[in-house]
Amino acid sequence: MTIAETIHHIGETITIFGWVDTKRDHGKISFIDLRDRTAKVQVVLIPASLDEQSQKNVSEIRPEWVIKLTGLVKARPERLINPDLITGTVEIEATSIEILNQATTPVFPLDQDKNEISEELRLQYRYLDLRRSAMYRNLVNRHKVNHFIRNFLNQKEFLEIETPILTKSTPEGARDFVVPSRHENGSFYALPQSPQQYKQLLMAGGVERYFQIARCFRDEDTRKDRQPEFTQLDMEMSFVEQEDIMQLNEQLLIDLVTQLYPEKRIQTIPFPRISYSEAMEKYGNDRPDIRENPEDPDVLAFCWIVDFPQFEKTEEGNWTFSHNPFSAPKPEYIDDLIAKSNIETIISTQYDIVLNGFEIGGGSIRTHNPEALRATLSILGYSDELIEDSFGHMLTALASGTPPHGGIAWGLDRLLTVLQNESSIREVIAFPKTGDGRDPMMQSPSQIHLDQLLELGLSVLKKPSA
Ligand code: ASP
Hints:
By secondary structure, this protein is α+β, with helices and mostly antiparallel strands. The chain has two domains: 3-101, CATH 2.40.50.140; 127-308 and 350-368 and 403-441, Bira Bifunctional Protein, Domain 2 (BirA Bifunctional Protein, domain 2), CATH 3.30.930.10. It has helices at residues 52-60, 119-124, 126-129, 133-155, 196-204, 242-260, 276-283, 334-339, 370-379, 384-398, 412-419, 450-455, and strands at 13-26, 29-35, 40-45, 66-75, 90-101, 159-160, 178-180, 188-190, 209-217, 229-238, 265-266, 273-275, 299-300, 302-306, 311-313, 319-321, 351-355, 358-365, 405-411. It has an eight-stranded mixed β-sheet, sandwiched between helices. It has a five-stranded mixed β-barrel with strand order 1-2-3-5-4. A two-stranded antiparallel ribbon has the order 7-8. Helix 9 (370-379) runs antiparallel to helix 10. Bound molecules: aspartic acid. Aspartic acid binds at residues 194, 196, 324, 362-364, 407-409.
């Protein structure tokens, strides 16, 4: 039985398991709060009700010890009801206590506000940190959001498909994490910055509707809302236009909020659509916070940003893609793209979804015509050789009868951070890394053994110290 269920068993003897949250001795009688994942309950320990071994155990137990407890569930008198506790209407009078495991004194008090404890320490002892109800609640709601998304997309006939983690460097604009190959010394896999090419290849494979709750890896400097590995809700559809993908995603977000976060209010439905140029002019950025009152934590102001330029100029004066090289231009610009003319005026089918000033997703209709992708890559300044080497498989696939397709990816960690009213994505990830990409609990990254280096054909050059 869970601790939350005890309130339905007044007058019965029950057995519960959990952690000693607090212990208070009042002369002969002691009290503990026993905690499991569902709730805390007050337990009264009266020596006369306990067998001899249990009496001894009571004298020994301390916070965070793990126990099995049998006792009688008693209704609390009216004046002693604690409205702040789920189990505030009852208390348990223990008849037996068994110690399942002892615990060292926690390195930080679990009832202390998490913001007052150093994050390094919280991450080093993440398993202790996760025992707090607020952290558990984040995990529960993350699970519920994943579950909701899976159900919704399953009903719309999407297939959930896993794509490789050991893959090839993709041109998404960030630095890759690489994995050395043992079979081919000197060659490297790259961890995916997103499943972009695989999901497009699934469309070439006739899948039509794909999604994945996918781990993505980008070797960037970590910031408040970035992690070296993060999770996307990634999807792709065939035979669709920009409008179809936007509407499906808008409905998914509305249903998700309405059912899982009924206390929240979506500021405007349908979500406002703002062109890139209007956003830049009015807000000075392309992820505007359009909340009427940014103080209100329960308002969700979603908006779409559309009509991005297809290409941007780099500082060196070359063209670069504004999102990814596979985005198609709007149909009226396709001729310009293939002719490589009026490049600066080409508008993309890219759409971003923004929530309270955070970009929580983005996607586009893709180029399914090999000629148009070749033109894009050539505008970006890629040589024919580089195009063949890096994108040959994509061009061949597009030429094999690939349907028109498009998709989107949400940054799930960021979305959850906003929904859970948290200040950092690290609060909604079970085992995040520190700001500089370390895991203080596992102590990674770490050096590897010389034998491993030799097997991989690697030697390590120490960077000269600054
Ligand atoms: N792969 C893109 C990204 O990670 C999203 C998309 O266009 O579907 O940003």
